[in-house]
Write a structure and sequence with these properties.
Layout lengths: L4 E3 L5 E3 L10 E4 L9 E4 L9 H8 L7 H14 L5 E3 L2 E3 L7 E2 L5 E13 L2 E14 L4 H9 L3 H4 L3 H11 L3 E4 L7 E7 L7 E10 L2 E10 H7 L12 E6 L2 E9 L3 E3 L3 E2 L5 H11 L3 H14 L9 H6 L14 E2 L11 E3 L2 E3 L12 E8 L7 H20 L7 E8 L7 H17 L4 E6 L6 H13 L2 E6 H13 L5 H19 L12 E4 L2 E4 L8 E9 L2 E2 L5 E8 L7 E10 L4 E2 L6 H16 L5 E7 L6 H20 L6 E8 L8 E2 L5 E2 L5 E3 L9 E6 L11 E8 L5 H11 L14 H12 L28 E5 L14
Parallel strand pairs: 21-22, 21-23, 23-24, 27-32, 32-33
Antiparallel strand pairs: 1-2, 3-4, 5-6, 6-8, 7-8, 8-9, 9-17, 10-11, 10-16, 11-14, 12-13, 14-15, 18-36, 19-20, 25-26, 27-29, 28-31, 29-30, 30-39, 33-38, 34-35, 36-37, 37-38
Helix pairs in contact: 10-14, 11-12, 15-16
Length: 811
């Protein structure tokens, strides 16, 4: 008897045939067209699920979410698509040898799509999103290197810089080799020496007089391949690849480049900023093109009714692929900023040349960091002087000036590694002298490719001497002026004025001035008219945002957690606390913020010092939490926050807490049709809280920004804990308004500003921690920890200079 089943590529088989009444174990033979030699032994029936559980839950949502039934359907759909597409992770691609886009650096882009079944208020919904993914090409390593370097290395060889560049591109890439008939898989770590100098002892067995004799032979790789593998190396002057077997990471192998081929379907996850920009120029589709790609991908799945795929027939699944679902949405009005003295147009904020409370700058230094030649080239000198003049003019216009003491400094930076100590000493000397001069701010103009420059500037300013810094790339100055030369519009000084205005936003924020005041007094429209929110005059609000980056970590690459807290009830100022966390041994994923209790406690004290009282209502936004981690947040992080309340408030009434998870990395997109009958982006302020949101949770989509390119991705908000008892309208308005509170930005943000600041702090904090000895740590050889506990995790708080402790120094 034939049984219809599917395998999840793990430990489970799924069948739509009822086998519960049969005697186990059951033996099944696969059909000849799959594998005539493979038999399946079913030991026991692990469980039974019915699609009726999904229908019942959608009709009456409760705590028993049918996650298992949905997961099984998704697994079956994944297997159903295997004959018509290639699945890589959770993405599906057309199984064709030719890529969609070939990049100049040798990589390739392939159009794929993600699909997921979602439980929504409108029923079971298929969420499908397309993406262009960067892959390694399925070619010989030698061919890839030549394209990547744009150089004939067979003829001209490779320089030290070439090897360094290729190592960064290929590190972690999986390869196969000619001598294994392209079956044995290795993973690249680095480059080793040339084959001629790779000498080792080879044990050769010979048969003499009925006995097996083993005799050692000293070979280099050239002789080994010639005599033992019958392969002649044509390019012995090229270094070998240092690789390892996937499960033997402490035993490196040395393989000649010419014998290696890149394994197919490998996503490239390492990208420099320049590479990312180059890829995005090819890979960011317009809303119209993305809509077309999504619909064509959906039709290729053959989900239409009546179902044609065998699996879809078996579970009676069909998808309406004629058109995307039409849903209702609302547009929220933007907030009042600076008592209506600022204009908001499609998310852009025009301050009209005024800050609410400008910080008076009295002593400032413009420091040039780069190679110093005497005399300084005239074009560079003129541009620097124009920048300083424009900065002082704009500072006076925004009432941060006039600046009484404005000095200039130059720090000689050499880019090679041999001069590292001299560079560090020169930077330290600069800041030490400025500290003695009571300098408030150092504007650092960086004109060097030395990769440690910015980190050491921030280390001296933020940690050692407590001087505010604002970094600026000289190349950005030059780039703006070059653009004007190519396309002159207006006056060239206006370009510098615009740059200086953006810099002054950041500087005034760092110096604890106030750029904007967003009116967070919320009004909602109810059936009985306009009703004010539950906020009372005596209410004191504090807002917090938290994020964790690099959740899979080890000792040499710790996870960084950051929590940002507002200093007032309108979120015009803020402070940050940062902590790194890592496993004491091995590597693991740390999704939780281990030291959240202490970090929140310090931010509560910061609020009290700023206002003379503690807040009685706290709204906490948490980024970087997947759906499967909600229980961990409820069971660990919220109790940690509550414990911090008890530590700080002592005998006072504890504040009310609302905890919201923010998701930026999801696959839902919304489109509108504009007046020209074109598919276009949604507007800022659009909120969706019906149809496609979870049927049993307090959640909503909010698009708070205007996309500069590509398709808008609205943020998804899940309310996990709400003691303040917000209505949907109140919380949506509050969240939207908080997206306008980033003092650094001239536009509304995609997420509330505190989360954006926490993400920025976590990203920039890694270089500010004291250096630790990781020379004995090999990340490739680290074993993964299974179910780590708090005892297995080590933490360290970032300690900055006292002058910077309660300032937004990462702004």
């Amino acid at each position: 008897q034939y049984v219809f089943f599917r395998y999840d590529e793990g430990k489970c088989f799924y069948s739509t045939t009822n086998i519960s009444k049969r005697q186990f174990p059951l033996i099944y033979t696969l059909p000849p067209d799959q594998n005539e030699n493979l038999r399946l032994c079913v030991l026991k029936l692990a469980g039974q699920w019915s699609t009726a559980t999904i229908t019942n839950y959608l009709n009456s949502p409760n705590s028993d979410v049918p996650t298992s039934a949905v997961r099984i359907l998704e697994t079956l759909l994944k297997q159903a698509l295997s004959p018509i597409s290639h699945c890589e992770g959770s993405l599906f691609y057309r199984n064709e040898p030719k890529p969609d886009v070939s990049l100049p650096d040798g990589f390739e882009l392939r159009l794929g799509f993600f699909q997921a079944l979602c439980l929504t208020q409108a029923g079971l919904t298929l969420n499908l999103q397309t993406t262009l993914t960067k892959f390694y090409p399925h070619v010989d390593v030698l061919d890839f290197i030549e394209v990547h370097l744009n150089k004939d290395i067979r003829k001209y060889g490779m320089t030290i810089n070439d090897y360094e560049k290729v190592k960064m591109a290929l590190r972690g890439c999986k390869i196969t080799t000619r001598q294994s008939n392209y079956t044995q898989i290795y993973q690249i770590r680095s480059f080793s020496d040339v084959p001629e100098r790779q000498v080792f002892d080879f044990i050769k067995e010979t048969h003499v007089n009925g006995q097996n004799l083993a005799s050692p032979i000293k070979y280099n790789l050239i002789d080994y391949y010639k005599h033992e593998k019958k392969i002649k190396l044509d390019y012995p002057k090229l270094r070998c690849l240092q690789c390892y077997f996937l499960h033997e990471r402490n035993d490196p192998k040395h393989l000649p480049i010419e014998l290696c081929r890149i394994l197919q379907w490998q996503e490239c996850e390492r990208e420099s900023v320049a590479e990312q920009r180059n890829r995005q120029s090819h890979s960011i589709p317009t809303p119209e093109q993305r809509y077309i790609d999504i619909m064509s991908s959906l039709k290729s799945c053959q989900y239409r009714a009546p179902p044609t795929l065998p699996l879809c027939k078996a579970v009676q699944l069909s998808v309406d692929d004629k058109e995307m679902k039409l849903i209702k949405a609302r547009i929220l009005h933007p907030p009042v900023i600076n008592n209506n003295n600022a204009e908001i147009t499609m998310g852009r904020i025009n301050l009209k040349g005024k800050f609410v409370e400008p910080f008076k700058l009295t002593s400032i230094t413009f420091a040039y960091f780069g190679p110093i030649v005497s005399p300084l080239p005239a074009p560079k000198k003129i541009l620097m002087e124009k920048f300083v003049t424009s900065f002082n003019k704009m500072a006076t216009a925004f009432r941060l000036g006039p600046i009484q003491t404005c000095t200039r400094d130059a720090v000689h930076i050499v880019e090679n590694e041999e001069n590292r100590d001299k560079n560090l000493a020169a930077i330290n000397t600069c800041f030490c002298y400025r500290k003695k001069q009571n300098c408030q701010l150092v504007v650092c103009i960086m004109d060097s490719n030395w990769n440690e420059l910015r980190a050491n500037i921030k280390q001296n300013g933020t940690v050692t001497y407590g001087i505010a810094t604002q970094c600026l790339l000289y190349s950005k100055l030059q780039e703006q002026m070059d653009k004007f030369q190519r396309r002159p519009r207006g006056h060239p000084d206006r370009i510098l004025d615009n740059m200086c205005e953006n810099l002054l936003r950041k500087i005034n924020f760092k110096m604890q001035g106030i750029n904007t005041q967003v009116d967070l007094h919320i009004k909602t429209t109810a059936s009985s008219g306009v009703a004010s929110a539950k906020s009372k005059k005596e209410d004191a609000w504090q807002f917090m945002g938290a994020d964790v980056i690099h959740p899979v970590c080890r000792q040499d690459k710790p996870s960084i957690a950051a929590v940002v807290g507002s200093g007032d009830s309108i979120c015009s100022t803020s402070a940050v606390r940062v902590c790194k966390q890592w496993p004491k041994t091995g590597k693991c994923a740390i999704e939780a913020i281990i030291e959240l209790r202490q970090m929140v406690g310090e931010l509560l004290e910061y609020y009290r010092e700023w206002n003379g009282q503690l807040a009685n209502k706290i709204v906490f936004y948490r980024d970087g939490v997947d759906d499967g981690q909600f229980a961990r947040v409820l069971n660990f992080e919220i109790p940690q926050i509550k414990a911090a309340f008890k530590d700080v408030y002592e005998n006072q009434p504890l504040p009310l807490l609302t905890f919201i998870v923010v998701k930026k990395r999801h696959h839902t997109r919304f489109f509108i049709v504009n007046d020209r009958n074109e598919t276009a982006n949604i507007s800022p302020g659009l909120v969706v809280d019906t149809d496609v949101v979870h049927p049993g949770q307090f959640s909503f989509f909010l698009n708070s920004h205007k996309a500069l390119q590509g398709t808008n991705r609205p943020a998804l908000y899940h309310v996990l804990h709400d003691e303040i008892n917000f209505t949907s309208d109140e919380l949506q308005l509050l969240t939207y308004y908080l997206c306008f509170t980033d003092p650094r930005s001239s536009t509304s943000e995609a997420i509330p500003s505190l989360i954006h600041q926490a993400d920025l702090a976590a990203s920039n904090a890694r270089d500010l921690f004291p250096e630790t000895d990781t020379s004995t740590t090999d990340g490739y050889a680290a074993d993964a920890l299974e179910e780590p506990t708090l005892i297995d995790i080590a933490t360290e708080h970032l300690r900055v200079h006292d002058n910077m402790r309660d300032t937004p120094h990462f702004g």
